[in-house]
Design brief:
By secondary structure, this protein is mainly alpha-helical. It contains 7 helices and no strands.
Length: 152
């Protein structure tokens, strides 16, 4: 029973409760001998059970669920776990623009730096350039963010 409980991420007690609701048992156990389960059939039973819950949701149940979801999202936003897309989109656009500008100016500069260098030296130069670009992206701040922090 512990193994099938682990498959579903529940306590063995939950499996016992589910058995009372029709959870399939391949071989019923007895004292000292655990029951055996067909995982595929158990997953099928569980999936059908969950789908049935959704199919039989009343309008009041749906309304209660939607209200609860809304309250959950409001709470997450207050805790700073959710940020409205309207606040993120301009910053993402600015980041993409800055990244694009950095890459647009890179080829001419890098081609000048590569003159007279061996393939290994060029590879090292490009590797350094890519790592620096990724470092800058990882620690990226908009000009607005820097102004708020007092950094210019």
């Amino acid at each position: 029973m512990d193994q099938i409980a682990a498959v579903f991420g529940v306590a063995p007690k939950t499996i016992v409760e589910w058995q009372e609701q029709g959870f399939p048992v391949a071989v019923r156990g007895r004292p000292g001998v655990p029951s055996e389960y067909d995982t595929d059939k158990c997953i099928g039973w569980f999936t059908e059970r969950e789908l049935q819950k959704i199919r039989t949701e009343s309008p009041n149940d749906r309304l209660a669920r939607v209200k609860a979801d809304s309250i959950e999202m409001d709470n997450a936003e207050r805790r700073g776990l959710l940020i409205p897309a309207t606040l993120i989109e301009p910053k993402m656009r600015a980041a993409a623009t800055q990244a694009r500008e950095a890459w647009i100016e890179a080829p001419p500069r890098l081609s000048r730096l590569c003159l007279g260098k061996s393939a290994d030296q060029i590879e090292a130069l490009l590797q350094t350039e890519f790592e620096e670009f990724l470092r800058r992206i990882a620690s990226w701040k908009t000009i607005d963010d820097e102004d708020e922090d007092g950094d210019d």
